Write the C-alpha cells for this entry.
Amino acid sequence: MHQFASLVVAMCVACVVFGQELVYDAAFFPGAAHDPAIDTPEKILGFAMGDRPTTHAEIEKCLKRWDEQSERALLVSHGQTHEGRTLYHIIISSPRNMARIEQIKKDLATLGNPRGLSEAAGKALLDRTPATAWMAYSIHGDELSGADAGLALAWHYIACTDQSVLDLLDQTVVIIDPLMNPDGRDRYLAQLREFRGAVPSVDDQARLHGGRWPWGRTNHYLFDMNRDWIFGMCPETRGRIAAAGPWQPMLFVDAHEMDTQDTYLFTPSREPINPNYTAFQKRWLDEFAGDHAGAFDAQGWRYYTGEWADDWYPGYSNAWASFRGGIGILYEQAGVDWFGVRRAAGNVLTYRQSVHQQLLSSLANVRTLFENRAEIKQGWLAGRRACVSSDGAYARRVFAVVPGANPSRVDAFLDAMRLQGFETYLLGSEWSGPGVDRLGRAHESVSLPAGTIVIPNAQPNANLLAAMLEFDPRMNEAFLAEERRDLIRNGQTWMYDVTGWSLPMLYDLEAYELDTALPDGVKPLVEIERAEPGLRRRDAGQGWVIDGADDAVPALAMKLMLAGVRVRLADEAFTWGERGFARGSIVITREDNPRGSAEWIDTLDRLCREAQLAAEPIATGLGAGDVADIGGEHFDLLATPRIAVLSESPVDSGDFGSIWYTLDERYQLPATHLPCASLSYADLRRYNVLIAPGGAGELLADATDKLRTWIESGGTLIAIGSSGFEIAQEGGLSSARALEDVLGALDEYEIAVLREWAADAEVFDAETVWSHGVLSGKPAYPWDDIDLDRGSEEELTRRDDWQRQFMPPGTVLATRTDDEHWLTVGCGPDLPILFSSTGVLMAKDEVEAPIRYGVLEDDATADEPRRAGWCTIPAGKELRLRMSGLLWPEAAHRIANSAAVTREGVGRGQIILFADPPTFRAASLGTTRVFLNAVVYGPGMGASAPILEP
Ligand SMILES: [Zn+2]
C-alpha cells in the first residue's frame, strides 16, 4: 500500500506541475457494461487500469481472482522463469465453449494435422470449432504498456455483458498471455521505482525512461526472447510453445514498444519477407491492418506499417505463429515507461494512453477475427492441408542429418525438433539420391547410412520446419536492389536482424536437403542410441579415455579438475588396442591420480554418468606405429580453469548473457562475473581465464599494462567481437590486427595464408632433394604466380572504405579449421560461423589462425591464381564462403581468408580472439564448442601453469 500512497502524492504533484498534461481520462471501454461480480483491476490493485505499470505479482493476483470468479475464464500456468515467477495464460470464451474446451482442443489437433480428414469431415469440425486468438504482451520486459493492455483486455472479455462481446466469445476462444517476460519486467520496474521522484519526469532522456544495464528487455540470462522461438533456449519460450501450439492460434498478436518519439506500428511488414509466409497471411494481414487503421483513425492517433519492420528472420513471435498457419501480428507502441513523455510537438504522451492504444489495437484485431471467422478458418485449414499434401510446395524435400560422433550435439538438435512437435525419422537402411549440402553444392547422389535422421518437410507445421532448417532462402530481387541502393547512398541496411540462422548450420551438423519424398523403410525417431555412460571397468590398468568428439567433454574435464582429478587432453587422434579415439579425447590415468583411495574413481564414474559419457578402460596405451602413446607429448596435462567474465556496462549484455547461460545454465561451470569498472583494481591472480564479451572497449585498453602482466604470468585472455578488435591495435595487447589497419602490409598476411595452403599442397621431387648438385633443384615460392601489385595504400584504403559498407548484418559463412590445433578439437573441417560484425581480423607470424573464413574446393575452370580481396586463391581452386543469408561480393572479398579465431602466446599466457560472438543466442553450438575449448583447455594447452603442491 505504501507504494500506492506515494504514487498518489506523485500524481498530485504531477497535476500541479504539469496541469492536465499527465491526465489521460479517455474511457477504455466507452458505453460497455460489465458484470459487477467480476472485480475490476482497480478493486483488486487499488489503481485504475493503465495508471501505472503493473508488476508480475499484481497481474498474477488479478488473473487468479478472475479465474475464481468467472465461468468464462480458465487460468493455466505454462512454466516458471529462471527467477521462479510463474508464467500464465488465461483462456477466455463463452461458458458454453468453456464447458467443452478440451473437446475444442482435440478438434483443433485433428484439424491441425488433417491427414486423412475428408472435405466433409473437415467442414463439420471447422463449423463447430471457434476461431482462436493468442494475445501475447511485453516479451521485452522494458516495453511496459502491452502487459497492462493485456490485463485490461482480459478483464473486459471476462466481465463485459454487452451482446456484442457475448456473441464474440461464443465464436472465438481468446487466450491472453499478458506478460511473456516477468523477470525482465520486474527488473525494469525495480529500476524505474528507484529512479522515480515526487516530481514526474517527462523528459525521455531521463534515466527514468531508459533504465540501466542490463535493462529490462531480456530475461534472466539476458536473452532477447523475441529471437528465441526457433531455438527454444529459454523456459519462457519452451512453456509458450508447448502451451500455444495446441491452440492452433489463427490470430496471434505480439505487442511491443519502440522509441518514445515514434508513433505506432503494426503489421504487415515490408520486404524482405521470409518465403515461408503464404498468400493467406499476406491477404489477411492487409485486412487486419485496414480495420486496425480504422480504429486509430477514429481516435486521431497516428500509425504506420512496414518501414523498418521486415519479416525475414523466423524467430520472432509473429513469425513463429505465422509459420504455424496463423496470422501473426506485431505491434510497436511508442514506449513511455512511467508517467509520460514529452513529444517533439510539445504534447505529453501519457502511460495510460500508451496502454489504451495497445488495448484498442487488440480489440480491433480480435473483432476482425470474429467478423471474418468463417473465411479465416477455411483459409487456415486449407493451409494446414497444404502442409501435408503429397503435391504441395514442401512435398519433395527431406532434411537429413547424419548423427556422427557427437551425441550431445545431435540431442540438442532433436530437442529443438521435439519442442516444435516435428515428425522425425531414422533411415532403416542405406539411401542415396539427389541432394544439396550445406555449402550449396548440388549432388546427383548423396549416400546416407542407415540411422541417418530424416525429417520430411511435408508435415503439419511444414512452413515452420522449412523456415528453421532450410539452407538458403532467397530475398526477392526488388528488395536486393533497394537494399544495395540504400547501402551506397546512406550506408544503411534495411535488415533488422541476422539474415542466416539455419539450425543444421548453427549446430554444425552434417546435413543435406534431399530432393525426395520421405524414403521408404524409415522408422519414427524416439531417441538416438548412446553408449552406456560411466566407467566400463573399474580395474583399468592405466586409466580411462573419454572420446573427445562429444560437446559434453570440455565441461566434464573441468568438473573433474574441480573435483581434484587430473586430466590430460589428446591433441591428435589415436588408436589403442581395437578402439580409435578422436582428437580432443581426455585421458585420466592412475599415475596422475595416485592417491591410495578409490574416491576419485567414484567421482570419475559419477561425473561421466551425469554428462552421459562413457569412460573406456585403457587396456594398452600403445598406439601402433606412429600413433600417439600414453606417455608421449600428445597428452597434455590440463590446468583447472578459474574463470572470470567481464560484465556490466559497457559490455554487450546479450553477448555476456549467452556466455553466462552457456557456462552456468547449460554446463554448470563456475565463473565470476567481474564488473567491468573493477578491472583496474581487481586482483586478477584469482583467475587464469578472463573472458571479455563484446563491448568492453576502452576499459580493456585502459588496463593494458595490468592485463599484460597477468597474461605474461600465465593468464588466458579471451576477447570477443569488438573487445577483440579493441586490443588488436597498435600498442594494444594483441598482435592481430583489423584489416583496415594493415592495408599497407597485406603481402605479409597473404603469404601467411599461402604458407598454410602450401604446406598442404606441396609436391616435390625426392630425386632433387638427394641430388648433390645445387642447380638440380630450383626453389619455388608460393607467390611465384601471384601478382602482388595491389596499387597504392591510398587506393586500397578507398576500396576498403567502399567495401566496408556492404558488410553482412548476420550471415552464415563457411570456415576452414586447422585440424592440428587444440582450439578446434570436436570441430569438423568446415565450421559454419554467423558473421555479424564489420571487423575483419588479420593474423600472421606469431598470431595463429586456427579458423579462417572460406573453404577451398577444386575448380577445374580456374587455370590461374585469382585475386579475391587481399588474398589470392590458388590455380585450380575456388573458395566457398557464403552458406546462408545475404553476402554482397564486396564483403565476401573483404572477409575471405581472414581469421575467425586467433591465438597468440604472450609470455607464459595467451590471447584468444573471436571475431564474432561464438555463443550467439546460445544456439551457435558449432562455435560454442570452440569457445569451451578455449575456456576449459586454454590454461593447460596454450598457457603454462605453475607446478603446484598437491
Ligand atoms: Zn520489443
Notes: The domain at 2-382 is CATH 3.40.630.10 (Aminopeptidase).
